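Objective 1b of the project was to move from sequence-level analysis to a structural picture of ligand recognition. The entry below was assembled by the postdoctoral researcher (A.K.) and checked by the PI before modelling. It contains the amino acid sequence of the target and the SMILES of the bound compound, zinc ion.
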Amino acid sequence: MTRDDFKEWFSYHAARFPGVRTWMAKQESNGTNPNDILDAWEIRLRFTDLRDAKKASDAMFEDAALTPSYYEKHAPTVAMIAQKYAAKPTYIDGQRTALCGDCGDDGYVLCWHPESIKAARKGELKRLTMAVCCHCDTGESRKEGINKRHPETVPHYDPQKWRMIRGPITPEEETEFMEWARTLGMQQAYEEFSQFE
Ligand SMILES: [Zn+2]
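Corresponding predicted holo structure:
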């Protein structure tokens, strides 16, 4: 996650565990600058995806058994829980391990439909989804299966243009999707999806 992602995650997490802020502020009297703690947490979460980290905070909030007894363990625990939600690694020691992190070697990625993106840009929520060919080799072969002569014209997954749906569509995902669609570049939204008119 980026620095902004980290700030967003921290607010999200502290809304569930307000004691975190109090605990951090108290460390000052123990000779530890709260900003140093935040820096350490940010480093710990650098390779964690924002959405996965928020899901992990939710899991801790819902289940006391997952919540560590000490506040200093919150960030490492979130990182560990988030790993379970993260896309599986595609390579281990340089060897392909079978799974594409985005499609799980299925070749298709489930995304919000362009119709939904268009509606969202007008402030309307339309719950339509669409399977898009993945950017991986399996996805490439799917494209050829769909259009042998012009596989390049088959829509394929690009995180700049499509928003993947990893799990059930929760109210939170809906809100995030609406925000994502709103900030999507005009040109991307209209040129790229003109074929769906
Ligand atoms: Zn894939």
